[in-house]
């Protein structure tokens, strides 16, 4: 069984979408996959920083 996913709708600047689409194509990904990967990295970084701050 796969991972449950939800569908969301966002309004993004056209230039941003065009840039993201180019990067996705360069990495042989879908735009959706690229955005999901970027958001995962952001969340991992935030969690890492939170854990570091809690150790102080």
Could you describe the 3D structure shown?
- The termini are far apart.
- The protein has one domain (14-55).
- Helix 1 (14-26) packs across helix 2.
- It has 56 residues and is mostly helical.
- It is 68% helix and 0% strand.
- It is extended and about 40 Å long.
Structural class: mainly alpha
Q: List the secondary-structure elements in sequence, H or E.
A: HH
The tally of structural domains comes to: 1
Strand content: under 5%
Please mark out the parts with pLDDT under 50 across 5 or more consecutive residues, or reply none.
Answer: none
Task: Describe the structure concisely for a colleague.
This protein has 56 residues and is an all-alpha fold. The chain has two helices and no strands.
Keywords summarizing the entry:
single chain, 56 residues, mainly alpha, 0% strand
């Amino acid at each position: 069984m796969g991972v449950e996913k939800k569908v969301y709708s966002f309004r993004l600047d056209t230039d941003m979408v065009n840039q993201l689409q180019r990067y996705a194509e360069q990495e042989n990904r879908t735009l959706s996959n690229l955005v999901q990967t970027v958001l995962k990295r952001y969340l991992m970084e935030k969690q890492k920083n939170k854990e570091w701050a809690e150790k102080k």
